[in-house]
Design a protein that fits this description.
The protein is an all-alpha fold and 153 residues long. The protein has helices at 12-18, 30-46, 69-88, 92-103, 108-115, 121-136.
């Protein structure tokens, strides 16, 4: 049994972005990584609720400033809405892979197993989903033909 080191603070997407395929090309390009990380950050923001204790650093310094707990709830709701809208642009299999890896933090292997996909087919679904997200976020142009499914699938 081989032992592998893992950086538990690293997102599964960042780990995949550092890996290369058999031809030496990155598994995930920069735009796909940026789109996935943007979705991940919004998902994390959507999970943050208002604080229940006094925040001395959040006191307003002028009449224009405000620091009500309601604002944090509004920010979390807005982030959750952005996540829903971004995921809604994806086909079902791609949505499931992007959700599992970017939002829930699963590894590629666990996501493939959990979704009942063949080995390595999850990587293709993830790349298609991330390419579509990059288009949704305006990080790349609208042509994702390099990541489309082959005919007959």
């Amino acid at each position: 049994m081989a032992r592998h080191r893992a950086n538990l603070g690293e997102s599964p997407l960042a780990w995949l972005a550092r890996r290369r395929d058999a031809n030496g090309a990155p598994l995930i390009d920069a735009a796909e990584l940026a789109a996935g990380e943007r979705l991940r950050m919004d998902a994390e923001r959507s999970a943050v609720g208002p604080t229940l204790t006094m925040r001395w650093d959040a006191l307003p310094r002028s009449r224009a400033g405000t620091s009500s707990p309601k604002e944090m709830g509004d920010a979390a709701l807005a982030a959750a809405r952005r996540v829903r809208l971004a995921l809604a642009t994806l086909p079902p299999v791609e949505r499931a892979m992007v959700d599992a890896i970017c939002v829930r933090g699963s590894s590629l292997q666990l996501a493939e197993t959990g979704l009942g996909l063949r080995r390595r087919s999850g990587r293709l679904a993830l790349r298609r989903g991330l390419a579509a997200l990059a288009v949704h976020y305006g990080l790349t142009a609208g042509d994702t033909s390099a990541h489309k499914r082959p005919e007959g699938h």
